Amino acid sequence: MAAVERVFQSGWLGMGSVVKEFEDAVADFLGARYVVATSTGTAALHLALDSIGLKPGDEVIVPSITYVATAQAVTATGAVPVFCDVEEDTLNIDLSDAESKITEKTRAIVPVHYRGMPCDMDGLFKLAHDYNLRVVEDAAHAFGSYYRGRRIGSFGDLTCFSFDPVKNVTCGEGGAIALSDAEFMGLLQRKRILGIDRDTWSRYHDKRSWVYDVTTQGYRYHMSNINAAIGLVQLKKYDRLNSRKISIAKVYDEEFAKLKKIELLRTDYDGLSLFIYVVKVREGRDRLMRFLEGEGIGTGIHYIPCHLFSFYGRNRAKLPVAEKIYEQILTLPLYPDMSDEDVERVISAVKKWE
């Protein structure tokens, strides 16, 4: 609250010097060369996809197990999301199936680091190189995760993050794009504020330019100083918050591995920024959800496969793993403020059901 109060006292609530401070802090945290902050994670995805020049009729490969925001960011450009299957043990993108969906119209691929667990980026970048595709990472779950000793966002093409209220680092609402190309960064900065050519640099100094040009199609996707102030405070808490979530997940793993009806996803906790805790229920997932609700324990399903939504029906594909997994996956409570007693109550309830 003190950080937000200082923004109000400054009189500059919109995008300004605090946003620049947040971008620099995120870049330092990730080891990224550049970071462009946005109003939401979905805005970051749309901005990144729009900036690579997608046009109507172009195709973008997207794993079906993801929040619909990933697919909506594609359709917002006029391009067509082509859904591919996922790995059964991680729910990350299945690169073999993704390759089978590539056509002469394919322009990009959007891997989703599900739960925060990084995809096979070496394999993905090879695939992109072989077919001359852009890679726009949906790292909404993976802020802070490492892949082979480097944080997601410190390498690659364009990496998009979310800082919404339930993410491991929140700005209240917000997003960001990490990248290494200075020229492309300039394009993203212009596009996030209505295509205006010089407004970003003025605002970084808490000023506004009244003489400017509009050089490209743009959007009102910039972050405010208020949201950036929240994010700066949250960044300092990341290690503690993530450490607590990891410790809870490991307790869950130890106990749920003993149950016959519960199957664990493959998880490498080394360098992981864990967003959600998901298990597979071999039979009776919906019955378990209702039972836990009766015990006062909330659960969820992350996610309905995107290719099953009516809006994408014209692109309906058979994705057997995604469709099977959808009937099994269950998200259990996982948040840093959970007490040991809360954790034990979840475990005891699941055991009671089994």
TrEMBL record:
List the InterPro entries hit by this protein, alphabetically: DegT/StrS_aminotransferase, PyrdxlP-dep_Trfase, PyrdxlP-dep_Trfase_major, PyrdxlP-dep_Trfase_small
Keywords annotated in UniProt: Pyridoxal phosphate
Which Gene Ontology terms describe the biological processes this protein takes part in? polysaccharide biosynthetic process
Q: Name one GO molecular function term.
A: pyridoxal phosphate binding
Family assignment?
Belongs to the DegT/DnrJ/EryC1 family.
Protein name as it appears in the record: Aminotransferase
Q: Which organism is it from?
A: Hadarchaeum yellowstonense
